[in-house]
Amino acid sequence: MSNTPALGTHVVVVGAGMVAHRFVESLLSRAGDEWRVTLIGEEDRHPYDRVGLTGFFAGASSADLELDRSVLDDERVRFLGGDAVTRIDRSARRVTTRSGTSLAYDRLVLATGSYAARLAVEGFGHDGCFVYRTLDDVEKLEAFVQRRSAELGRPLVGTVIGGGLLGLEAAGALQGLAVDCTVVQSSDRLMSAQLDLAAGNALRRLIEARGIAVRTEAVTTRLDADRSGQVVGLEFRDGSYARADVVVFTVGVRPRDELARAAGLDVNPRGGVLIDAGCQTSDPRVLAVGEVANFDGMCVGLVAPGYAMAEVAATRLLGGEASFPGYDLSTKLKLSGVDVASFGDAFAETPGALDVIYADPVAGVYKKLVLSDDAKTLLGGILVGDASAYGALRPLVGSALGGDPSAYLMPEGGTAPPTGELPDEALVCSCNSVTAGTIRHAVHDEACTDVAGVKACTKAGAACGSCVMMVKKIVGAELAKTGSAVSNAICEHFDMSRRQLFDAVRVSGLTTFSAVIERFGTGRGCDICKPALASILSTLVRRHVLDGENATLQDTNDHVMANLQKDGSYSVVPRIPGGEITPEGLLVIGQVAQDFGLYTKITGGQRIDMFGARLEQLPDIWKRLVDAGFESGHAYGKSLRTVKSCVGSTWCRYGVQDSVGMAVQLELRYRGLRSPHKIKLGVSGCARECAEARGKDVGVIATEAGWNMYVGGNGGFTPRHAVLLAEGLSDDELLTAIDRFLMYYIFTADRLQRTAPWFEDLDGGIEGLREVIFDDALGICADLDAAMEAHLESYQDEWKATLEDPEKLRRFASFVNAPTTPDPSLAYTAERGQPRPATEDERADSRVLIAGTTLEVRR
User: Fold this and answer.
1) Interaxial angle between packed helices 765-774 and 731-748, expressed in degrees from 0 to 180 and rounded to the nearest 10
2) Residue 556 has what pLDDT?
């Protein structure tokens, strides 16, 4: 069978992945009607986003991952899916496919990509062994895990062989399927291609704190199976053995160059079709792009270089001049709760390069900048534990930092980094080679007024998404220059502010993230909009934070209803309303802390916090506390934290009102109230202000005439004193005013906005706020009152409800196959008679206390 377009230049593209899709899009966006393209892919699917493959396990469908279909709907394109080229006849300029189709070409583009390698070990073909490369791979993996766990009647034990980027993402995917996962790495550290040893060690601690075990310097020599051929374990070079029900290989990729070899094209001995800077192979009519192409002795499994090659190849075919600049190896790990990035000359291989390093091993933070020998030009860097600076730093590679380099590395609260604009030539989106100047051009000359418009126009942020915040910052700055309104969209997935999104959810009555984003948003969401919407749904739907799909939206602390500490343990914080506690309650807390070896501290909010609890201990600890009448203190949530009080008129000779009684009433009224940010209240029994009420979001101070109410007091980075809202309120008037203030704040504040900046932004400031709350200026007081009443009626103690639900309790296991086994990475030493996390030096000392042993203070 022959099928050759009759007119124009015919380009045949072999392979239908992301790079091939980009090439076709780039070519046809600039080519005339005389051009024809045939795209041939062996997968029976349209091209899809392999970078976002892990999103499949977060609920994304195969359709969600599809790339822009309009590219293939172009009348100049013919797409042959589910077929594969089996032969290239260069002399006849013709390709033959598996189905027998024969196609003549004028120019041929090889975009065959790569395949996932497997270890050459005995047993790699056993049932339960997978690679992690395509949608078919992940669909089969998910189906196997679900089937096999049902057969065994328990969660599976899994091993990922390979601790690189893909391996860690695969481990996260397995963990999302309730598989107890271990990552096995043959080298001495994770992500050894991107991180130095210190960064690798910091990453290991983060991964292990997430509940994924890590085994380095471990070489697999054999996979064992049972009689049915199902994998059951792995043997290692050192003679050790590990049980496994499922094994995923992520040991790298190999270029799919077999077609090129058979066609006689020049191929690197170690793999990959040799190309020049114009992406041309040894045959002038054949080009190669993406992972199959070998440039300067390298084949790289990243999408950004492939996209750059696609643009170069399209430009060359159209008669233009373009050269592939070489590989940008910048990477950012896409694993929830683990912040890692590497960019530029991360290993300081440039002669004379200098390192600037900030490290906090206990907190799992490691940051390194590589500078030129004059300490002015940024060459590269590594960020582990806090990669928030990645978006600002990576575009500056090759440019002067313009300030003290350490300012980019110090924790929040340190010296702020310079805030100057990026130069036009700074590369903002490495995946799509988009510079700051290109984004500015899109804003001013292409009338792009938001991130979505810039993304559509320039492709900035359209691949991995790590540059989206920087794109948003540039767009906002350029719009401000022109006097245009700046978008207050919560993120790229919702073209609304938090306030607008709150109203949309309230009016529509939608109850799940998937329903909300389907109606009001786009894409699959991100770590900005998901927690924000979780808070909104908690207010409006009022279900348990771990119920249904909304459990996946929560922040790290809400996932286990405890505050994660720097060593990977958790804090336990029972509610103590108003700081008032009985002797019996004190005895229970003391006994629990003693029995579980917890560090105890009385906090500034008049509570007793217990630190050092392991994940699997949390249900047992809370069972004892709940049985004794305690409930969750919500220290982990963006919600009411505490209501602090003095002893008031009950004991104090200066007290004029019962401040303790009012504080208890307020805390029991607003407990569990989710909000844009944490909320703190204070009640003082007289003007001497011992409860420091004017430093709280709501401060109440007693007078002979009643209660004075203050609002907008915040501590933190920018302390604010609360402002007087009303005087001489009765108990009922005070409760009504606080109800309306808090609900108005929850209804209208931006994401993570404290009460002080919120009410300062309100029309009319404090006077406008009084009119809303007391005069019903907006006509919403009935709605605010009803919302608070609904909160009071629906409140439940989250820990008590969790203890009554076996499904929720499954989350609290250190290891799925050994739920009571302590995390071996936790270690403590004694200080002032209590345990605290051991430093790296102390871990080697015999006096260090290891988690899981009987805790005693060793001197």
Assistant:
1) 120
2) 63
Please tell me whether residue 74 adopts helix, strand or coil conformation: coil
Cβ atoms < 10 Å from Cβ of 500: 16
- Over residues 299-347, the pLDDT tens digits come to 888 888 899 999 999 999 999 988 998 887 778 776 666 788 899 899 9
Determine the pLDDT at residue 640.
92
* pTM summary value: 0.58
What is the residue-wise DSSP string for 191-244?
TTTT--HHHHHHHHHHHHHTT-EEE-S--EEEEEE-TTSBEEEEEETTS-EEE-
> 709 in the Ramachandran plot: left (φ > 0), alpha (ψ -120 to 50) or beta?
beta
Q: 3-state SS of 405-464?
A: HHHHCCCCCCCCCCCCCCCCCCEEECCCCEEHHHHHHHHHHCCCCCHHHHHHHHCCCCCC
Distance (Å, rounded) from C-alpha 165 to C-alpha 338? 12
Strands 608-613 and 570-572: what pairing?
antiparallel
Q: Would you call 789 helix, strand, or coil by DSSP?
A: helix
- Could you tell me the maximum CA-CA distance found in the chain, to the nearest angstrom? 104
Question: Strands of 102-104's sheet, edge to edge?
Answer: 85-89, 94-97, 102-104
Is 237 within 8 Å of 221 (Cβ atoms)?
A: yes
Alpha carbon distance 532, 516 (integer Å): 12
Rounded CA-CA distance 379/394 in Å is 9
- Decide if 634 contacts 625 (C-beta within 8 A): no
Residue percentage of the chain with pLDDT more than 90: 47
Burial 520-544 (b: 16+ CB within 10 A, else e): bbebbbeebbbbbbbbbbbbbbbeb
Neighbouring residues of 132: CB distance < 8 A, sequence distance ≥ 6: 53, 116, 138, 141, 166, 167, 169, 170, 173, 248, 249, 250
Cα atoms found within 13 Å of the Cα of residue 159, Cβ hemisphere only: 25
b vs e for 643-666, b when ≥16 Cβ sit within 10 Å of the residue's Cβ? bbbbbbbeebeebbbbbbbbbbbb
Q: What stretches of 273-431 adopt beta strand conformation (E)?
A: 273-274, 286-288, 293-294, 331-332, 340-344, 354-360, 365-371, 378-384, 427-429
Sheet holding 213-215, edge to edge: 129-131, 246-249, 157-161, 180-184, 213-215
Residues in contact with 371: Cβ distance below 8 Å, sequence separation at least 6, in sequence order: 353, 354, 355, 356, 377, 378, 379, 401, 405
- Rounded to 5°, the CA angle 265-267-268 comes to 165
Q: Give the end-to-end CA distance of the chain in Å, rounded to a whole number.
A: 85
Q: What is the dihedral of CA 393, 396, 402, 403, to 10 degrees?
A: 20
Q: Is 735 exposed, middle or buried (0-12, 13-18, 19+ CB in 10 A)?
A: middle
Which DSSP helix (H) or strand (E) runs through 86? strand 85-89
Q: How many other CB atoms sit within 10 Å of the CB of residue 309? A: 29
Q: Six-digit token pair at 728?
A: 């001489």
- pLDDT recorded at residue 789: 94
d(CA 249, CA 789): 54
Buried b / exposed e over 607-624, threshold 16 CB at 10 Å, is bbbbbbbbbbbbbbbbee
H or E stretch at 608: strand 608-613
Gap between the Cα atoms of 174 and 151, Å rounded: 18
Residue with tokens 């004892």: 624
Tell me the chain's radius of gyration from C-alpha atoms: 30
Question: Pick from 825, 816, 823, 821: which is nearest to 180 by CA?
Answer: 816
Contact 607, 549 (CB under 8 A): no
Helix or strand or coil: residue 1?
coil
The whole-angstrom separation of Cα 732 and Cα 681 is: 17
> Residues in the chain with pLDDT < 50?
1-7, 412-416, 850-859
Quick one: which H or E segment has residue 621? helix 618-627
